[in-house]
Write a structure and sequence with these properties.
By secondary structure, the chain is α/β, with parallel strands linked by helices. Helix content is 51%, strand content 9%. It has helices spanning 23-31, 43-51, 61-66, 70-84, 103-114, 128-134, 148-160, 189-199, 255-266, 272-276, 283-299, 302-325, 331-344, 347-350, 358-372, 389-402, 410-426, 434-454, 459-483, 493-505; strands spanning 8-12, 34-37, 56-59, 90-94, 119-122, 144-147, 181-184, 208-213, 221-226, 239-243. The chain is elongated and about 110 Å long. The model is unreliable at 509-516 (pLDDT under 50).
Length: 516
């Protein structure tokens, strides 16, 4: 026979003054013998002995002092509560409302459910209402709120390069700068710094924010400060920060801001050129922007790369907006499609499939894709035939090789290349047709692409590197000819050879030639 579990009652203690306790909370405290509180550092808790002299108070402040991280603090508190509930009913008090920015309550409810432990929630007045009452310019239809400790965890994980999936990792949090934001428990200069760094990714550094101290207590106050000065002011555990919203055109660092701009350009009264565009008219621009991204990569110009990636991203948003206007699909469909596909094709990340190496992943990759579209009779049919020939050849051969269809060794490949070169040499005689020479040259290029793949070299990148090297050296030859007062076409073959050898000895000005 199972032993019945005792109840854990979570009691919201309100935002500050004991007068803000609800009638339900007062009734419970009048009948209680013991109250466990997350922290005694709260005005209501400090007033409880005078109002309820028979009530025994026990705080978890010792856990804060012993644990290394805030996640560990919350975990230990919840663990203790569950242990206590094995012996008797437990009354647990938290500042404000249990439903607002209270991590221990979220964790407790999750673990209690898995253990069939009953948890009762008694709501209290949160910090939100009295904090907003102090903010003079609050006037909005909706509000975002977040705990400063959560922001600190986000910032620390970002700085350490941590990825989702690790215990305690927070999901990516991107605020909406066009809506007001309230941040609770900015209790230290360290947290204020984390909050500032997070906010300045989306809001201007000189954006004025409201600092709310001790809301719902006799010492409550509100002051204004520029965002970049947020970590220079005095804060404590009863400090909250209110961030006013930005105008739509000021929201320039979020995807939502880009979508708003794109829709405005396409809307009546927007840009005449953007309004005239269609899927077909934008094809050339899409290709040009993709190649400009490649150029930035080649040049290792990462400032330029950020700009070019933005131009490419705009092509995606404007195509999506045109499609939405035609009721074809929306940007949400685009995002949903790729997100679902990434999760589906990475079961070794998002489920329990074990694929420990990249080789193992590649072996399963085509089966993942084939399972998505079983109507395809060939693994090559999904490769766009409109791709440039070199990357198309690389993609075709790579997929075939994943099925074991390839030359057995690199030596066999090189021998095949020599064979194709000999055939090409035999087909370049004046009496040989262009079609035959074209075929032999194509065969040679095809084999060289395969050799590059076996050597783990992208042939497109190899040729781009060779092109950059040639352009640099040729421009050196041009410069030397001009310096001698002569036109390049007037130089003899011997003179050109001398200048070329000199150019080969000069360093290439950009790191790009060595990239890849």
């Amino acid at each position: 026979m199972s032993v019945p579990k005792h109840r854990i009652t979570v009691l919201g203690l309100g935002p500050g003054d004991i007068s803000r306790l609800t009638l339900e909370a007062v009734e419970i405290l009048e009948q209680a013998a013991r109250l466990y509180v997350r922290t005694a550092e709260h005005p209501t808790v400090q007033m409880l002995p005078a109002r309820f002299p028979y009530l025994e108070l026990q705080s978890f402040d010792d856990v804060y002092e012993a644990a290394d991280t805030i996640e560990e603090v919350y975990g230990r508190i919840v663990g203790r509560l569950l242990e206590l509930a094995d012996e008797a009913d437990v009354l647990y008090g938290v500042p404000g409302s249990p439903a607002v920015d209270e991590t221990t309550v979220r964790l407790l409810r999750s673990l209690a459910a898995s253990q069939e432990q009953e948890v009762r929630i008694v709501q209290g007045l949160s910090y939100i209402e009295p904090a907003l009452a102090l903010v003079q310019d609050f006037d909005a239809d909706w509000l975002q709120f977040i705990d400063a400790a959560t922001i600190d965890l986000l910032e620390s994980q970002n700085a350490l390069g941590e990825v989702p999936g690790k215990p305690g990792h927070q999901p990516v949090r991107i605020p909406a700068p066009t809506a007001p934001l309230l941040i609770s428990q900015v209790e230290s200069s360290h947290l204020a710094t984390s909050v500032k760094l997070w906010l300045t990714r989306y809001w201007p550094e000189d954006h004025e924010v409201s600092v709310v101290r001790h809301a719902a207590t006799p010492s409550q106050a509100e002051s204004r400060v520029a965002l970049f000065k947020l970590d220079r002011i005095e804060v404590d555990h009863l400090t909250a920060v209110y961030v006013p919203p930005l105008a739509q055109t000021q929201d320039i660092h979020t995807f939502a801001g880009l979508l708003n701009v794109t829709r405005t350009l396409r809307a009546p009264g927007g840009c005449p050129w953007d309004r005239e565009q269609s899927h077909d008219s934008l094809k050339t621009h899409l290709i040009e922007e993709a190649y400009e991204v490649l150029h930035s990569l080649d040049e290792r110009n990462y400032t330029e790369l950020a700009e070019e990636l933005g131009d490419l991203l705009f092509q995606i948003t404007i195509h999506s907006q045109i499609a939405a206007e035609r009721d074809e699909f929306s940007i949400e469909d685009v995002i949903g499609s790729i997100t679902k596909k990434l999760i589906r094709r990475h079961p070794h990340v998002f489920s329990d499939l074990d694929l420990p190496t990249s080789a193992a992943v590649l072996q399963r990759w085509e089966s993942f894709k084939q399972a998505e579209k079983p109507q395809r009779t060939s693994i090559l049919s999904s490769i766009p035939t409109a791709m440039p020939a070199l990357p198309y050849s690389y993609a075709v051969q790579r997929r075939a090789a994943n099925q074991g269809f390839e030359w057995p060794t690199i030596d066999a490949l090189l021998e095949k290349a020599r064979e194709e070169l000999a055939e090409l040499e035999g087909e370049v005689m004046p009496t040989v047709s262009r079609e035959r020479a074209l075929e032999e040259l194509g065969d040679l290029l095809f084999v060289l692409v395969s050799a590059g793949r076996r050597l783990k070299i992208d042939p497109e990148e190899a040729l781009r590197s060779a092109n950059r090297k040639f352009v640099h050296r040729f421009q050196q030859v041009e410069a030397q000819a001009r310096a001698g007062g002569r036109a390049l076409k007037d130089l003899s073959a011997e003179e050109l050879d001398v200048l070329w050898n000199e150019a080969k000895g000069s360093p290439i000005g950009s790191e790009a030639a060595d990239f890849g």
